[in-house]
Write a structure and sequence with these properties.
Distance between the termini of chain B: 71 Å
Number of helices of chain A: 5
Shape of chain B: globular
Order of helices and strands of chain A: HHHHH
Largest interface: A-B, 12 and 20 residues
Largest sheet of chain B: 5 strands, mixed
Order of helices and strands of chain B: HEEHEEEEEHHHHHHHHHH
Oligomer: heterodimer
Distance between the termini of chain A: 44 Å
Strand content of chain A: under 5%
Strand order of the largest sheet of chain B: 2-1-5-3-4
Structural class of chain A: mainly alpha
Largest sheet of chain A: none
Strand content of chain B: 5-15%
Shape of chain A: elongated
Radius of gyration of chain B: 24 Å
Helix content of chain B: 25-40%
């Protein structure tokens, strides 16, 4: 039932991505409406706004969450595409480990960047 | 059209409507390469592609090899790739194809034995893998003492999947099978769901270990080509999605396996209506009679 677990995580990651991207689109493109409601940031694409957001814990957590879910969702799809090429038993294991290693590396890199931006 | 052909068509009591060109893919294993051979076939109303192949074999080339049996869409033997779509030759009316050319090829995604004869070994291997039978206490299966009780509404939950005739057209249509021969495919997965939902069965978890493994329903791309090709309306694509849901619910313990259907007890308070004959004796001997 390992595949069932991986598939469930894939679905869950997709839902989280949907929510976080909706928030992202709102912040980036509905700034006038959000500002009128007293919750938005003016000029969200400016350097100052980016720095201000990266100093907030909620945004840092959201960045790391989006990074993790997007990496899992995308790399799970990549793994499936590669496995469907029917590479053989040993090659399939190698592919899975490589995809896992790639995902963890990128996640660590992105998370460190987000934390450093938050701390500094 | 020569006189012999006319007589052949008229022997069916029908007027010849037109002459159609049959483009048949030939393959002789000893030669090792496929080629296309053309035949002119007189067509009458109601004539199927299988009838056309019979005509070719009987009148034009007796070496043409193809599979068929029941000629009425029940046995699933005559699956072929006809005018670019997987169909049963016995159920495909030539005139309904709306073309003056009928292109007949063996089913893709299977090794070819000869001409239009595919090797259905992969289909049956995959089918066998998902244990397509009721899993119960072997003592009861081998020495039955009664029938398993099942309500009509319980039967309806999987009834449509029992109509599979194992013709293999769904595997021919499946784009995932075309690229990944290890994928269990729509036929086996739909049958896995069919037996998992059968209330007489007690082997859901055992079956899901294989059917919901790496080569299971997760490989389905939801193209739906299998359901479109299925000549019996089984809708194997639906079966795959239902199997996927079942596997997820079992994985997270959100669904308990059904209790296996109980055995029917002795009938009491009913008597046989007059004129209805007694049933034949059981074909399997009970333990008592076997030992005596």
């Amino acid at each position: 039932m390992r595949e069932a677990t991986l598939w469930t995580l894939h679905l869950a990651a997709g839902i989280v991505i949907l929510v976080l991207l909706a928030v992202h689109m709102g912040i980036m493109h509905l700034e006038d409406i959000l500002a009128a409601m007293g919750t938005g940031y003016p000029d969200p694409l400016s350097w100052t706004s980016v720095v201000v957001r990266s100093k907030k814990l909620l945004f840092t957590v959201a960045y790391v969450l989006l990074l993790g879910t997007a990496l899992y969702h995308g790399l799970y799809g990549l793994r499936n595409i590669l496995l469907e090429l029917n590479p053989g038993r040993v090659a399939a294991r190698v592919i899975q480990w490589l995809v896992l290693a790639l995902g963890i590396s990128l996640f660590v890199l992105g998370t460190v960047a987000a934390i450093v931006a938050y701390v500094r | 059209m020569d006189r012999e052909r006319e007589q052949t068509a008229q022997s069916f009591g029908e007027e010849v409507v037109k002459v159609v060109r049959f483009r048949v893919q030939r393959f002789r294993p000893e030669e090792g390469k496929a080629y296309v051979q053309e035949f002119q076939v007189p067509v009458y109303r109601g004539m199927t592609v299988l009838d056309g192949l019979h005509y070719v074999r009987d009148n034009l080339d007796s070496t043409l090899a193809y599979r068929f049996s029941c000629r009425m869409g029940v046995c699933g033997s005559c699956g072929m790739f006809i005018n670019g779509f997987p169909r049963l030759a016995c159920q495909t009316q030539i005139l309904e194809l709306g073309s003056d050319t009928v292109d007949v090829r063996p089913m893709p995604n299977y090794p070819v034995v000869k001409d239009l004869v595919p090797d259905l070994g992969p289909l049956f291997e995959k089918h066998r893998t998902v244990r397509p039978y009721v899993i119960r206490d072997p003592r009861e299966l081998e020495q039955p003492t009664g029938e398993f009780l099942q309500k009509p509404e319980e039967l309806e939950e999987f009834l449509q999947f029992t109509y599979c005739i194992k013709c293999g057209l769904c595997l021919t249509a499946c784009p995932t099978v075309a690229t990944d021969p290890q994928y269990l495919g729509p036929q086996a997965l739909a049958q896995a769901y069919r037996y998992c939902k059968d209330t007489r069965d007690a082997g859901m978890d055992e079956r899901l270990k294989v059917a919901a493994g790496t080569e299971g329903p997760w490989r389905c791309h939801l193209a739906g080509a299998c359901s479109e090709a299925c000549p019996k309306g089984v809708d194997p694509a639906l079966g795959i999605q239902l199997l996927k849901r079942l596997a997820l619910l079992r994985r997270w313990r959100l669904k308990k396996p059904h209790r296996p259907a109980p055995l029917a007890g002795e009938r009491t308070g009913v008597s046989r209506r007059p004129g209805i004959p007694e049933p034949p004796p059981p074909t399997v001997e009970s333990e008592g009679s076997a030992s005596s």
